[in-house]
Design a protein that fits this description.
384 residues, 4 strands, two-stranded antiparallel ribbon, mainly alpha
């Protein structure tokens, strides 16, 4: 086989590994977003044993802990806590260290494969698959098989453990503001099977589909749809889509449930339709010196508090001091977030809080805030 042919085969083999990670380990096992047919599920498990030596329970437990303890000292691989270089270049080592934590496996590794093969073969002899893959590569490609095997062994440690866990919490764009630093690296999830859309995933972790905007593409979801059409997969959950009923003006329990369910969409809209228009008006009224500071505060006004560094906080506080309108809409944003963050309060009290928020927003005298509050009343779990 010519070198270009070997290169194509190598990329195909590594791509199958990527698909196995994103469809089987991540979406099906860690988040239970879909069910896979036993045959395809076992193929993915076998392929990962052959090409990565990863144990399903370990990977799932570590990833679930990452979501549960995100951006804290207990997060197994947060670049916010450990530094981007550490996670990017030593992500595999961080994974192996956490895999030795019995408490992590016991608490977060439930409902993963525990059959005879897992107990007596895959988990017990997880390195044997790597040696078998090396033998296959040498048999197929001769001495070049060492290079093919080396690329296979480095593919997941670099792209998944390094790039996704590192850059995916450090650099990129954000559609939503969950309480972490997750980012979408690029809008086209092709090279890493859709895992590039990491911010979307952290906003809706139980969704089998990672793409959210019209211009985004999730290759992993494309494969899930193919498997579904073949009867080899069943999608259990995707991210909710906001429903609004024209002419609905009463803030009732249906409104509250719809707003809590769609809170990330709502906060994104609040930034787009309230914060940014008010900022634009303030920029038009400000003199040159204040205009410069207000422009620099744009990102801080839209970001969640967890992602603000000291410089961003200073810019935010200055903008709120010099602009009464910005301070008002920012405070209303925090009050709206507080409604669904009060998990210990019963629904009746939360409903009263939402009704009061809408009433006060509509009486604020700020047009964009008034329009947003009226729109909020139309949210519903029912279809129009």
């Amino acid at each position: 086989m010519p070198l270009w042919g070997i290169a194509i085969v190598t990329l195909l083999l590594t791509h199958i590994t990527i698909v196995s990670v994103t469809v089987f380990l991540h979406r099906a096992q860690a988040h239970r977003a879909l069910d896979l047919h036993p045959a395809i599920s076992h193929f993915f498990r076998f392929w990962l044993w052959l090409t990565t030596g990863m144990v399903t329970k370990e990977w799932v437990a570590i990833h679930r802990k990452h979501h549960a303890k995100c951006e804290t000292e207990e997060d197994p691989h947060s670049p916010q806590m450990l530094g981007i270089r550490k996670v990017l270049w030593e992500g595999a080592e961080l994974y192996r260290d956490e895999a030795e934590n019995a408490g992590t496996l016991q608490r977060y590794g439930h409902n993963t494969p525990n059959d005879w093969l897992e107990q007596n073969f895959y988990s017990r002899h997880h390195s044997l698959g790597l040696l078998l893959m090396l033998a296959i590569d040498l048999l197929l490609f001769g001495v070049l098989g060492f290079a093919v095997w080396g690329i296979q062994m480095l593919w997941i440690p670099f792209w998944a453990a390094g790039v996704i866990n590192g850059i995916g919490h450090y650099w990129g764009y954000r559609n939503y503001e969950p309480n972490d630093a997750s980012t979408n690296i690029v809008p086209w999830g092709i090279l890493i099977g859709g895992e590039e859309l990491h911010n979307n995933h952290h906003a809706f972790p139980s969704s089998a589909k990672f793409s959210s905007k019209r211009w985004e593409f999730d290759l992993g979801w494309f494969y899930v749809r193919i498997l579904s059409a073949l009867g080899l997969a069943r999608v259990k959950k995707v991210a909710p889509k906001p429903q609004r009923i024209p002419g609905k003006y009463v803030v009732d329990m249906d409104t509250l449930r719809a707003i809590v369910l769609n809170r990330f969409y709502i906060m994104a809209d609040f930034g787009r339709f309230v914060v940014l228009p008010v900022l634009k008006e303030e920029l038009q009224k400000a003199d040159d010196s204040r205009r410069r500071f207000l422009k620099r505060a744009r990102v801080a006004l839209l970001r969640g508090d967890v992602r603000l560094d000291p410089q961003d906080r200073d810019r935010l506080q200055y903008a709120l001091r010099i602009s009464h309108s910005l301070r008002t809409v920012y405070e209303y944003r925090l009050q709206l977030q507080a409604i669904w963050n009060r998990t210990t309060v019963n629904h009746d009290k939360l409903l009263v809080s939402l009704q009061e928020w809408c009433h006060q927003a509509e009486a604020s005298g700020i047009k964009y805030l008034q329009d947003f509050a009226r729109t909020l009343r139309s949210y519903s779990l029912q279809t129009a």
